[in-house]
Design a protein that fits this description.
The protein is an alpha/beta fold and 507 residues long. The chain has 17 helices and 19 strands. Strand 8, helix 12 and strand 9 form a beta-alpha-beta unit. The longest helix is centred in the N-terminal third of the chain and has 17 residues.
């Protein structure tokens, strides 16, 4: 039987889940009521009178009035540290088997609780994603092929009464037994913690697999594909995996990697974007005629939207307690919002640090526009990561090069602020020309940036360096592979350390 038949059968038999169109606003109301009901007897639920909230005429409004907004530090300090000490029924019923170690772009290590209910939620969201493949006009034999999921090690760290690892590793360690025959590289290889060893073993075994789809962060998928091609002495990845048709991406913007990835292929793939974080599986692209992703509105996650405006944010980039906050029903299209989530892992009105834009409210579709702390606004530039990515796409076309990574900071030079960029590419160009072109592009597309350039922002510098320099920095300062992402914006102190490291590589 084809994989899709197995998945649908399992989804219906095991979960009682049938893919159907739901009204997003109604689904979200039910999700919040279910969250409050299940957590009402926890310490958090008692503190914030969840039982009383459930009796309110407007449960969402009552919830927003009673429960404060949290970032990681606040939730950890007030509540989650008890979980790491072995306490139960703190923010969600029961104890705690897993913690997801944050592997994003911040330097601070985070331990995010992953409950059994969240593992079930991630599985169901994965099934929604697979079911939506029927919308992408794929041949029936695609659903009989294997799926390469390039994530973090499933060899989790044992800590007292729980295990720790990245969310992709925790998810892979809990894949259903019926799915393991389709999952590659398999548990044994996925357990390897050394990135180079893992990729070399994938390259060795690649000829024995019939891969139909790939999943993983673009930069690490690209490195893996290059190793498979080099080790097996082939021209393109389709020489060894002729049935490869789908790439499920996520974690970072895909467009900067499209050109270099397609250079490794005999033909383009179907690209599907996903939004899987340490806190949950939030959204997935469900149709081919858009690059937006549909929020998963009926599966244990309640979403709130804070207009990304100065009056709603404090100096540290956190949402203020008195900020304007909208439910999905109240939110509007084409506005930058800071995303808050409440989930079956016991996160409550939790700021995950992403900004999103609703592109189709009826379908609850969004695009990720950036990170709240990766918003450059030291001297009024007001540059979002979304705007930076668009500028980099323009630079790719203008200079005919591939830009894989970049980082920017506002730094002081001769007592005045400039924006300094490091750009990782496949070839070098004149740095002064790049800086001037990038500056002009941003001045044309961002009026706030243009104003800043006439006042406090006195200059722009850019250095184009081999992209491998970024990956070597990542390997030494963070780690290579898995879900690791490279920051787009750095504070001045961190940026100067990064600059020193890059200079030493070049020197």
């Amino acid at each position: 039987m084809a994989v899709i038949g197995e998945l649908i059968k399992k989804a219906i038999d095991v979960y009682g889940f049938v893919a159907a169109e739901t009204d997003p606003a109604k689904a979200q109301q039910e999700v919040l009521k279910n969250l409050l009901t299940k957590a009402r007897l926890t310490a958090f639920g008692k503190k914030h009178t969840f039982s009383d909230l459930l009796n309110s005429d407007d449960v969402i409004a009552a919830f927003q009035q009673e429960v404060p907004i949290h970032d990681y530090d606040k939730l950890y300090t007030d509540w989650w540290h008890y979980l790491l000490e072995g306490h139960q029924n703190v923010t969600w019923p029961g104890g705690q088997r897993y913690f997801a170690l944050s592997s994003g772009t911040t330097s601070t290590s985070k331990s995010i609780p992953v409950t059994d209910d969240m593992i079930d939620s991630i599985r169901k969201s994965g099934i929604q994603q697979v079911m939506s493949l029927k919308n992408f006009d794929l041949p029936s034999d695609f659903f009989e092929k294997q799926i390469m999921m390039l994530g973090s090690s499933v060899n989790l760290i044992e800590k007292d009464d729980h295990q720790e690892g990245e969310i992709s590793g925790i998810s892979a360690a809990n894949i259903p037994a019926w799915f393991r025959g389709y999952y590659k590289p398999g548990i044994e290889i996925a357990s390897m913690t050394d990135w180079d060893q893992k990729v070399r073993q994938i390259a060795k075994e690649a000829p024995t697999w019939d891969i139909g789809s790939l999943s993983g962060i673009p930069s690490w998928v690209e490195m893996m594909l290059k190793e498979v091609i080099s080790y097996n002495r082939i021209q393109t990845i389709h020489d060894i995996w002729p049935n490869l048709q789908v790439y499920t991406t996520g974690g970072v913007a895909f467009e900067p990697y499209r050109k270099s990835l397609e250079a490794l292929m005999a033909r383009p793939l179907t690209y599907i974007d996903t939004y899987l974080t340490s806190e949950g599986y939030l959204a997935t692209q469900k149709r081919p005629d858009t690059s937006s992703m549909a929020l998963i509105v009926d599966n244990g996650i309640f979403f709130e939207f804070v207009p990304f405006l100065e009056e709603n944010m404090d100096e540290e980039g956190r949402v203020k307690q008195d900020a304007t906050v909208h439910s999905l029903e109240q939110a509007e299209e084409n506005i930058d919002y800071v995303l808050l989530i409440s989930t079956v892992s016991g996160t409550w009105r939790y700021m995950i640090g992403d900004t999103v834009m609703i592109t189709d409210k009826k379908r609850a579709e969004i695009k990720i526009t950036g990170r709240t702390k990766h918003f450059l606004n030291v001297v009024g530039e007001q540059l979002s990561v979304h705007q930076m990515n668009k500028a980099m796409q323009a630079m790719q076309k203008r200079f005919d090069l591939e830009i894989k990574e970049f980082v920017v900071s506002a730094i002081r030079k001769n007592g005045e602020y400039i924006n300094k960029w490091y750009i990782g590419s496949n070839k070098l160009v004149d740095n002064q020309e790049m800086a001037a072109s990038l500056d002009n592009e941003l001045r044309e597309t961002n009026k706030n940036y243009n104003v800043a350039r006439t006042k406090s922002l006195k200059g722009v510098e850019a250095e184009v360096v081999p992209v491998d320099h970024f990956y070597r920095w990542s390997e030494e300062h963070k780690k290579l592979g898995g879900q690791t992402k490279i920051p787009r914006v750095m504070k001045e102190e961190d940026f100067l350390d990064f600059e020193k490291y890059i200079s030493e590589l070049a020197g």
